[in-house]
Amino acid sequence: MWRHLPNALCVLRILLIVPIAWALLHGAVLTALVVFALAAFTDALDGFLAKRFHWESELGKRLDPLADKLLLVTVFVVIALLEWVPFWLAAAAVLRDLLITVGGLTYLYLYGDPKGQPTFISKANTLLQVVLVLWVVGAAAGIGVLASPAVAPLMAALGALTFSTTVVSGLDYVLTYSRKAQVAYQAKRLPQHPATAAATQAASRVSPPLAEG
User: Fold this and answer.
1) Is 82 exposed, middle or buried (0-12, 13-18, 19+ CB in 10 A)?
2) CA–CA separation, 162 vs 148, rounded Å?
3) C-beta separation of 147 from 139 below 8 A
4) Residue range 46-77, pLDDT digits in tens
5) CATH dotted code for 2-203
6) Of 30, 104, 19, which Cα lies nearest the Cα of 61?
7) Residue 178: its pLDDT value, please?
8) How many CB atoms lie within 10 A of CB 33?
9) How many CB atoms lie within 10 A of CB 18?
């Protein structure tokens, strides 16, 4: 029973998306901030529980990144509509996750499911997006130093860094999966020597579809 707790936390994170968006759009900014912080906490908690108690599952490997993408894409769209972040920043975040999702599903359909882990840059980008959202919504809620004009340049710098890692992680994904798709395509067409087969298998150990952070 307890081994399914990480997956339940992922489902909870997905269920919290609508209340967060509703609160933001209806001016309940502090409520939105608290609920988003809770959702972000479930992300850290489910990962910790899965690794600490070996409660990983194939379903969890799909649910966790899906919940992250749905949450962040929704919030970025809403705060862009509220003009709290530039449109181009929200567009970059949405397009990156759309690219990863569509590309991952296409690869899964054509070549099967590779095994691997999210890259460092994708994890860093997800973390930066979460921190930026917390800062922007916290500033809109008028919370202490977050709303101070003195720290506005820091927020702008965080936004620029978030945009940069969004673009870099998206390009990294495209390049990685382009190379991998080429290897997989050739492997399907040509009989392989054992050494070549081993090299192909090693090349396939990159981030699985939908597992980019």
Assistant:
1) middle
2) 21
3) yes
4) 999 998 888 988 888 889 989 999 999 999 99
5) 1.20.120
6) 104
7) 84
8) 23
9) 10
Q: What pTM did the predictor assign?
A: 0.84
* Joined tokens for residue 121: 């840059």
What's the distance, CA 66 to chain centroid?
8
DSSP, residue by residue, 21-44: HHHHHTT-HHHHHHHHHHHHHHHH
Which residues contact residue 65 at a Cβ distance below 8 angstroms, ignoring those fewer than 6 apart? 118, 210, 211, 212, 213
Q: Do the Cβ atoms of 10 and 67 come closer than 8 Å? A: yes
Summary count for the chain: helices (H), strands (E): 8, 0
- Measure the CA–CA gap between 95 and 115, rounded to whole angstroms: 24
Rounded Cα distance, 177 and 166, in Å: 17
Please indicate whether residue 38 or residue 208 has the higher confidence score (pLDDT). 38
Q: How many CB atoms lie within 10 A of CB 145?
A: 10
Structure tokens, 39: 């959702």
Long-range contact pairs involving 198-206 (C-beta distance under 8 Å, separation at least 24): 203/179, 204/114, 204/115, 204/116, 204/180, 205/114, 205/115, 205/116, 206/114, 206/116, 206/119, 206/176, 206/177, 206/180
Contacts of 138 (CB under 8 A, 6+ apart): 33, 146, 147
pLDDT higher than 80, residue 194:
no
Mean pLDDT, rounded, of the chain: 88
